[in-house]
Amino acid sequence: MTLREVLHAHIPTLTAESTVRDAVDKMDIYQFPALVVVDDRMRPIGVVTEGDLCRVVTTRDNLVSMAQEPVLAHATKEPTVAAADTEISDAFHRMLSSGLTLLPVMDDDRLAGIVLRVDLMQAMLLDVENP
Questions:
Q1: In whole angstroms, what is the distance from residue 104 CA to residue 119 CA?
Q2: Distances (CA, A) of 58 to 48, 54, 55, 64, 83
Q3: Three-state SS annotation for 36-98
Q4: Residue 126: pLDDT band by 50, 70, 90 thresholds?
Q5: In angstroms, rounded to a whole number, what is the distance separating the alpha carbons of residues 82 and 86?
Q6: What residue stretches are annotated with the CBS domain (predicted)?
Q7: What is the arithmetic mean of pLDDT over 28-33?
Q8: What would the mean pLDDT of 76-95 be, rounded to a whole number?
Q9: Is 68 exposed, middle or buried (0-12, 13-18, 19+ CB in 10 A)?
Q10: pLDDT digits (tens, 9 = 90+) for 43-83
Q11: Dihedral over alpha carbons 103, 105, 110, 112 (to 10 degrees)
């Protein structure tokens, strides 16, 4: 089974102009713990997680003070990505070894979607149950 078969294709994304407030709002609305920041050609230029934002808050007075800052300032730039034809077990092990919670999936040099670790765990268990 490949990432193409399990990815979330209709996902919220952020742009380089998005703020921390934009990121928090989208994480809440769409219930994703992380979001991809894309350029104008839908190529990932960063990934920001709830954990990234929480770590910054611990060094500041509060979250409100950073609400209008560019989210890209707090994102992991040049994020790890995987091709849509990557086997789910390979992607899962890559995520575990790198400590990733979200993996952008690429197809034809564009963001095709994302997978979360739980998506891959679920897919591997279903694959074993339904050979």
A1: 13
A2: 16, 7, 5, 12, 35
A3: EEECCCCCEEEEEEHHHHHHHHCCCCCCHHHCCCEHHHHCEECCCCEECCCEHHHHHHHHHHH
A4: confident
A5: 7
A6: 6-64, 75-131
A7: 93
A8: 96
A9: exposed
A10: 999 999 999 999 999 888 788 889 999 999 999 999 999 99
A11: -120
Q: In the structure encoding, which two tokens stand for residue 110, read together?
A: 């564009």
93: Cβ contacts below 8 Å, ≥ 6 apart: none
Show the domains of the chain with their CATH numbers: 3-129 (3.10.580.10)
Rounded to a whole number of angstroms, the CA Rg of the chain reads: 15
Place of tokens 């086997």: 87
Query: Phi, psi (5° rounding) for residue 80?
Result: -65, 135
Tokens coding 15: 């742009």
Q: Taking the alpha carbons of 55, 61, 62, 67 in that order, is the dihedral positive or negative?
A: negative
Render pLDDT for 106-122 as a digit per residue (tens, 0 to 9): 999 999 999 999 999 99
Q: What is the mean predicted confidence (pLDDT) over 5-21?
A: 95
